[in-house]
């Protein structure tokens, strides 16, 4: 049974049927899924949610399917790690890492949006799925399509990390590499969607896709013991995830599953592609597109579809935006790995790097709860570390060479105790 009321225009409020639509035909505003909260409130309780399996479908009443999910039944419910070592390093008292670096099956939060989008695409009768991707979406569409036997086409900019290309090809996906930026790939895909009638998960069925991100927020609130953190830092590409975490918190509040939301939301981008943060810092509503130039390729969207709404989410919640240089991204990736044993991709470096700056500037206080959103796995962006880590010494396989190393290397390899 579905609790979806309609697709509703975010600008003029007009309702549209639950089909493969994404823009309002009256004002061109984006469409968003709206629900019958009164009916959901009658059935959805903490106890019911807690009685269900450890995956994102434990919140199924708040996700936009008509029937049971047919794609990604095991996605979600990733760890919320109490990060005491990192807290100490940053000088804060209560810190958590929401770790979607280990999301199933493709090791990024994109599995959440793809499982909803593809399940809905099947309900709507599509047989071919597709996407424009900065890398992680490609991995996820390819993996989930393979698992459910759907033909799929994946479009990416030609300069992606090698691992993200190989990690898409391996599933037998039809990958097309485009000589251009993500924004150019996206424009081409809009044309293809119109002409071929495929389900582009993040274009023509975007309203359903985007709802999957809410599960990231639902899980954080549940895992914190049914409350929101005081501060959450979220990486932004198209700017959808950050708006949906906020929507998730607000829905839980509306349904009485948590008390009043008391949480500031901060958006993080790389300085080499920070159109949303630029606007927030300047106090502007208008997002000025940029041409991306950063190692954080998964976030390299120069003309973000939800830029305006993500800026508003930060402002409405009392948060703000911050950007970090490529060097700061690498430093933060190393800091997270060295303190918590979590290997995040470049986007994780962006998020932690931005959090660190906001804490140091006194914008985020040191004595309140903070959640850092890790959305992708470091094994997929290893080349960003090339030349940034000290290489291991190479010795012959004998004890004399090892002792020589211990005695001459100074502190690093000196035998302790
Ligand atoms: C896609 C992506 C994001 C951001 O998603 P948006 O909803 O487009 O802002 C964040 N982190 C990673 C690793 C991603 O792949
Ligand atoms: Zn409208």
Count, helices: 15
**SSE pattern:** EEEHHEHEHEHEHEHEHHEHEHHEHHEH
Bound molecules: pyridoxal-5'-phosphate, zinc ion
Q: What is the highest CATH level, the class of the domain at 80-106 and 212-385?
A: Alpha Beta
Strand content of the residues, in percent? Answer: 5-15%
CATH topology value of the domain at 80-106 and 212-385: Rossmann fold
Strand order of the largest sheet: 4-5-13-10-11-12
| Number of E-state strands | 13
Q: Which percent bin holds the helix content? A: 25-40%
Mean pLDDT: 96
What's the alpha carbon Rg, rounded to whole Å?
Answer: 22 Å
Give unreliable regions as ranges. Answer: none
| Global structural class | alpha/beta
Short description:
With 417 residues, this protein is α/β, with parallel strands linked by helices. It has a domain at 80-106 and 212-385: Rossmann fold. 38% of the residues lie in helices and 15% in strands.
């Amino acid at each position: 049974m579905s609790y979806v009321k309609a697709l509703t225009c975010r600008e003029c409020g007009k309702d549209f049927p639950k089909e493969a639509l994404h823009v309002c035909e009256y004002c061109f505003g984006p469409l968003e899924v709206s629900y019958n909260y009164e009916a959901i409130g009658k059935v959805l309780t903490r106890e019911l949610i807690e009685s269900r399996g450890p995956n994102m479908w434990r919140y199924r009443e708040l996700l936009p399917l008509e029937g049971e999910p047919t794609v990604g039944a095991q996605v979600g419910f990733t760890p919320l790690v109490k990060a005491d070592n990192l807290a100490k390093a940053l000088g804060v008292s209560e810190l958590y890492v929401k770790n979607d670096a280990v999301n199933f099956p493709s090791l990024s939060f994109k599995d959440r949006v793809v499982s909803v989008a593809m399940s809905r695409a099947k309900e709507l009768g599509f047989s071919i799925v597709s996407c424009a991707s900065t890398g992680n979406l490609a991995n996820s569409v390819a993996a989930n399509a393979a698992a459910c036997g759907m033909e799929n086409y994946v479009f990416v900019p030609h300069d992606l990390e090698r691992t993200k290309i190989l990690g898409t090809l391996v599933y037998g996906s039809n990958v097309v590499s485009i000589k251009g930026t993500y924004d150019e790939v996206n424009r081409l895909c809009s044309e293809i969607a119109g002409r071929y009638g495929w389900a582009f998960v993040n274009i023509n069925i975007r309203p359903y896709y985007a709802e999957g991100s809410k599960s990231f927020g639902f899980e954080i609130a549940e895992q914190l013991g049914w409350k929101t953190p005081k501060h959450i830092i979220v990486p932004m590409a198209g700017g959808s995830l950050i708006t949906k975490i906020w929507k998730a918190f607000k829905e839980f509040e509306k349904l009485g599953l948590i008390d009043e939301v008391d949480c500031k939301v901060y958006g993080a981008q790389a300085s080499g592609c920070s159109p949303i943060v630029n606007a927030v810092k300047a106090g502007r509503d208008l997002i000025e597109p940029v041409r991306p130039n950063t190692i954080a390729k998964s976030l390299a969207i120069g003309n973000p579809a939800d830029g305006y709404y993500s800026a508003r989410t930060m402002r409405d919640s009392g948060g703000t935006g911050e950007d970090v240089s490529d060097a700061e991204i690498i430093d933060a990736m190393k800091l997270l790995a060295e303190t918590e044993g979590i290997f995040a991709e470049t986007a994780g470096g962006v998020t932690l790097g931005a959090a660190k700056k906001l804490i140091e500037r006194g914008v985020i206080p040191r004595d309140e709860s903070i959640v850092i959103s890790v959305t992708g796995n470091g094994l997929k962006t290893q080349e960003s570390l090339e030349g940034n880590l000290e290489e291991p010494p190479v010795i012959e396989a004998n004890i004399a060479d090892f002792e020589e190393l211990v005695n001459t290397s100074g502190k690093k390899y000196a035998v302790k105790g």
